[in-house]
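Board notes (copied after class):
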Amino acid sequence: MFNFSFDKRIIYIILAIMVLSMVVQYAANPGMLYLLLISVPGVLIAITFHEFAHAFVADKLGDDTARREGRLSLNPLDHLDPIGTVLLLFAGFGWGKPVHVNPRNYTRKMSMEKGEALVSIAGPLMNFILAIIFAIIYYGIVKFAGFTFLISSTGEIVIDLISAAVSINVGLGLFNLIPLPPLDGSKVIMPFLPYKAKEFFINNEQIFYIIFVVLWITNLTSYIITPGIQAVGGWISNLAAAIWGL
């Protein structure tokens, strides 16, 4: 994901209210706290690899901005955005620290627009790949670990950790494909828009930012992507199970 241009102070206030509300719920329901804790590794992996993928593809296209800023890294601390990370933990969708790129440095074998689209889609695509890998691991454990391990405390935690990683990666990938700035989807669709639609999109980008903020604050984003998460997650689950003959 790339650039946020709206005032983050407002978002911080809203986020603080959301977190406080969730803390109260966790205090009343220890089971929810468990779900939060097992989601932490999945969140770190999902955000780190998502942002690394943006930086990696931009670098391969000839722009070394991300490399110079230390973003060609798999260290989570290089990629975590406070708002996006907390939101991903609490809501199942979010973002990482923006990867800065300079499309003018991209190879001239393609247009800057197409280069931006490739860099943008790299993050969500990485999340879907990770979701498939974790799902394959999940069903591999189910098939080979044995019933005794699966019903043990350790087995349950391992299964829950992997299951959370699948869901979080699917959620992060789909959320960032919503075609609204500042999400990756806004760059991905650009090469496919007619000229007039493209011009309107660029000239009215701030309106789309406002729409995004409204969707986020009102939690309407969950209604948009939850069906997608269920559909894509189900497909990935079926694929992984089929690989192991389950």
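Comment from the instructor: Residues 1-6 have pLDDT under 50 and may be disordered. The chain has one domain: 8-243.
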